[in-house]
UniProtKB/TrEMBL annotation, chain A:
GO terms for cellular component: endoplasmic reticulum; membrane. The chain crosses the membrane at residues 81-103, 162-180, 192-211, 232-254, 260-278. It comes from Cyprinus carpio. This is Trans-2,3-enoyl-CoA reductase b. GO terms for molecular function: oxidoreductase activity, acting on the CH-CH group of donors. The gene is LOC109063766. It comes from the Eukaryota. Its main location: endoplasmic reticulum.
From TrEMBL, chain B:
It comes from the Eukaryota. Signal peptide: none annotated. This is Very-long-chain (3R)-3-hydroxyacyl-CoA dehydratase. The chain crosses the membrane at residues 32-55, 76-99, 159-184, 204-224. Keywords: Endoplasmic reticulum, Fatty acid biosynthesis, Fatty acid metabolism, Lipid biosynthesis, Lipid metabolism, Lyase, Membrane, Transmembrane, Transmembrane helix. Catalyzes the third of the four reactions of the long-chain fatty acids elongation cycle. This endoplasmic reticulum-bound enzymatic process, allows the addition of two carbons to the chain of long- and very long-chain fatty acids/VLCFAs per cycle. This enzyme catalyzes the dehydration of the 3-hydroxyacyl-CoA intermediate into trans-2,3-enoyl-CoA, within each cycle of fatty acid elongation. Thereby, it participates to the production of VLCFAs of different chain lengths that are involved in multiple biological processes as precursors of membrane lipids and lipid mediators. It comes from Cyprinus carpio. The lineage of its organism: Eukaryota, Metazoa, Chordata, Craniata, Vertebrata.
Length: 304, 244
C-alpha cells in the first residue's frame, strides 16, 4: 500500500518588534500549537510579516507561503475580553441606570420627589421603549448574533461602557425629571414617534435574524445578504447595513417621543459612529465580492 | 491654556539637518509664511501696546483695555490653524491643535470678554503676558522654519521659555476663571434652566468649575510633553556641556 508522504515543518517564532527568537518548534505537523500560557491564544497575533495582517485560526501551515522552515512574527494584542461579555455589560448598564432614574431613586432629584412617579404618561411609555430596546439587545447578544471575532482589547469595555452608561444617565435624568415638559404636539407626536420606533425595532430584529441565517452555526463564512420573504429585509436592495439604518430610525423615534435634546445628541453621535462602521462594511463587501449589488449605499438609501 | 507652544513641532518646522519630508507646496508655503508673519506682527502689536500703556499709566493694573481689540483679533485668528491641519498644509493633529486653540478662544471670549468684572483683574495680565511672549516666539519660529533659516536662538527660546511661561499662563487662566465664578452664578450667564421645551439644562458655573478641574490632569501632560520635545530638539547641547 502506498504511504502518504507527511510534510513536517520547522517553525520559529520571533517577536514582531524586537525580532528576538521567542521559540523554536521542530516537527510541526499541520497545526501550529499555541506556544505560551501567559499570552493566551486570544491575545496572540501571529503573522508572516512583522507589519502584516494576523493569520487566522483556520489557516493551515501547509497552505501558507513558507518553506520547510517557517518564520512567524508574534505580536501581543494586549489583554482581551470576549465580545459577548462586553455587549452584555454595556447593555445591562443603560437598562438598569434608566430604571433608577425612572423610579427616582434618592440623591438624584430633590428629596421630596424620592420614589415618586412622573405624572406624564409619555414618560412611562418612554421607559417601556428604552427598556424594551436594551432587553432586546441583551437577548440578541445571547441568542441571535454570531460573532466573527471572539475577543476585543480589554480597554474597549471601559470606553464603551462610559459611552453607553454616560448617555443613558444623561437622557434618563431629563426624561424622568419632575420638571420634564412633554412633546409640543402632544398625543399626535407621541403616536407617530411610537410607530416609527416599533417599526424600526422590528426592522432591526429582522435584519439581525437574516444576518444570522447567512452563517451556519460555528462557522465564520461571509456571504452577501439578500432580501428574504420578510418585508422588513427588502431594504437590503438599497442598503448594505440596514441594521444601522433601523437603529437610527429607532432613536429618531425615541427623540421625537421624548423631545429631549440629550436624546437627540445621543442619536447624532450614534449615527456618526454607525455611518463610519457602515462605510467600512460596505467597502469590505465591495472588495470581497465582485458581484456585489451596485444599487446599495452603506447606510442611507442613495444618500450615504 | 497657554499650550500652543507644544505639539506642533513636527516635520515641516524642523531645521535643515533633517531629511526633508513631504511638506506643503510652494503656494501653501508662501501663504503660511504670510500667515505666520502677520501673527508675529499682531502679537508684537499687543506687546508694544502693553508696554506703552504701562509707561503711560505708571501701573500694571487694568492694562487689558489697552490691548483688548488686537488680542481678540489675533487670538481668534488662530482658528485658521485648525484649518491648516485639516487641509494638510501643516503636519499637526487637527484634534490637538483644535483643543489648544479652542481653549484660548474660550478664555478670551467666554470668560474675559463675557464677564466684565474680571477684566480689571491682575490675573488677566498674567496670562496675556504669557500668551504674548509665547506667541511671538512661536510664530517667528514657524516663519523662520518655513524659510529654512531658523536662528538657534529662536529654537532655544521656544523650547526653554515655556518652563516659566506655561505655569504663568495656567496660573493667570485659572485665577481669572475663579474670579468669574461668583458673577456667573449671580447672573446665570450662559445657563439654561428647567423646565423648557427641549428638556435640557446647562449650568455655566458648574461647567467652569469642571474646566478648572480638567487642568489638573491636562497641564502636567502638556508640560512634560514639552520637556520631552525639548530633550529631543535641543538634546545635543546638553551632551556638550556634560563633556566639559
Amino acid at each position: 500500500t502506498a504511504r502518504k508522504a507527511v510534510v513536517f515543518f520547522e517553525v520559529e517564532i520571533l517577536d514582531a518588534k524586537t525580532k528576538d527568537k521567542l521559540c523554536f518548534l521542530d516537527k510541526v505537523g499541520k497545526i501550529l500549537p499555541s506556544f505560551s500560557l501567559y499570552w493566551y491564544p486570544a491575545r496572540q497575533s501571529i503573522r508572516l510579516d512583522p507589519k502584516g495582517k494576523s493569520l487566522k485560526d483556520e489557516d493551515v501551515l501547509q497552505h501558507l507561503p513558507v518553506g520547510t522552515t517557517a518564520t512567524f512574527y508574534f505580536r501581543d494584542l494586549g489583554a482581551q475580553i470576549s465580545w459577548v461579555t462586553v455587549f452584555l455589560t454595556e447593555y445591562a448598564g443603560p437598562l438598569l441606570i434608566y430604571l433608577m432614574f425612572y423610579f427616582r431613586v434618592p440623591f438624584i432629584y430633590a428629596p421630596k420627589y424620592d420614589f415618586t412617579t412622573s405624572k406624564h404618561w409619555v414618560v412611562h411609555l418612554a421607559c417601556m421603549c428604552h427598556s424594551f430596546h436594551y432587553v432586546k439587545r441583551l437577548l440578541e447578544t445571547l441568542f441571535v448574533h454570531r460573532f466573527s471575532h471572539g475577543t476585543m482589547p480589554l480597554r474597549n469595555i471601559f470606553k464603551n461602557c462610559t459611552y453607553y452608561w454616560g448617555f443613558a444617565a444623561w437622557m434618563a435624568y431629563y426624561i424622568n425629571h419632575p420638571l420634564y415638559t412633554p412633546p409640543t404636539y402632544g398625543e399626535q407626536q407621541i403616536r407617530l414617534a411610537l410607530t416609527v420606533f416599533l417599526f424600526c425595532q422590528i426592522g432591526n430584529f429582522s435584519i439581525h435574524i437574516a444576518l444570522r441565517n447567512l452563517r451556519p452555526p460555528g462557522s465564520k463564512t461571509r456571504k452577501i445578504p439578500y432580501p428574504t420573504k420578510n418585508p422588513f429585509t427588502w431594504i437590503f436592495l438599497l442598503v448594505s447595513c440596514p441594521n444601522y439604518t433601523y437603529e437610527l430610525g429607532s432613536w429618531l423615534g425615541f427623540t421625537l417621543m421624548t423631545q429631549c435634546l440629550p436624546v437627540a445628541a445621543f442619536t447624532l453621535v450614534g449615527f456618526i459612529q454607525m455611518t463610519v462602521w457602515a462605510k467600512g462594511k460596505h467597502r469590505s463587501y465591495l472588495k470581497e465580492f465582485r458581484d456585489y449589488p451596485t444599487l446599495r449605499s452603506p447606510i442611507l438609501p442613495f444618500i450615504l | 491654556m497657554s499650550a500652543p507652544a507644544m505639539g506642533t513641532s513636527k516635520t515641516a518646522h524642523t531645521d535643515s539637518s533633517h531629511k526633508k519630508k513631504k511638506g506643503p507646496g510652494t503656494l501653501a508655503t508662501a501663504y503660511l509664511v504670510i500667515y505666520n508673519v502677520v501673527m508675529t506682527a499682531g502679537w508684537l502689536v499687543i506687546a508694544v501696546g502693553l508696554v506703552r500703556a504701562y509707561l503711560a499709566r505708571g501701573s500694571y493694573h487694568g492694562l487689558y483695555y489697552s490691548i483688548e481689540k488686537p488680542l481678540k483679533y489675533f487670538q481668534t485668528g488662530a482658528l485658521l490653524e485648525i484649518l491648516h491641519c485639516a487641509v494638510g498644509i501643516v503636519p499637526s493633529s487637527v484634534v490637538l491643535t483644535g483643543f489648544q486653540v479652542m481653549s484660548r478662544v474660550f478664555l478670551t471670549w467666554a470668560v474675559t470678554h463675557s464677564v466684565r468684572e474680571v477684566q480689571s483683574e491682575d490675573s488677566v495680565l498674567l496670562f496675556v503676558v504669557a500668551w504674548t511672549v509665547t506667541e511671538i516666539i512661536r510664530y517667528s519660529f514657524y516663519t523662520f522654519s518655513l524659510l529654512n533659516h531658523l536662528p538657534y536662538l529662536i529654537k532655544w527660546a521656544r523650547y526653554t521659555f515655556f518652563f516659566v511661561l506655561y505655569p504663568m499662563g495656567v496660573a493667570g487662566e485659572l485665577l481669572t476663571i475663579y474670579a468669574a465664578l461668583p458673577y456667573v452664578q449671580k447672573t446665570g450667564l450662559y445657563s439654561i434652566t428647567l423646565p423648557n421645551n427641549y428638556n435640557f439644562s446647562f449650568d455655566y458655573h458648574t461647567f467652569l468649575i469642571l474646566v478648572m478641574i480638567s487642568y489638573i490632569p491636562l497641564f502636567p501632560q502638556l508640560y512634560f510633553h514639552m520637556i520631552r520635545q525639548r530633550k529631543k530638539v535641543l538634546g545635543h547641547v546638553e551632551e556638550y556641556s556634560k563633556v566639559e
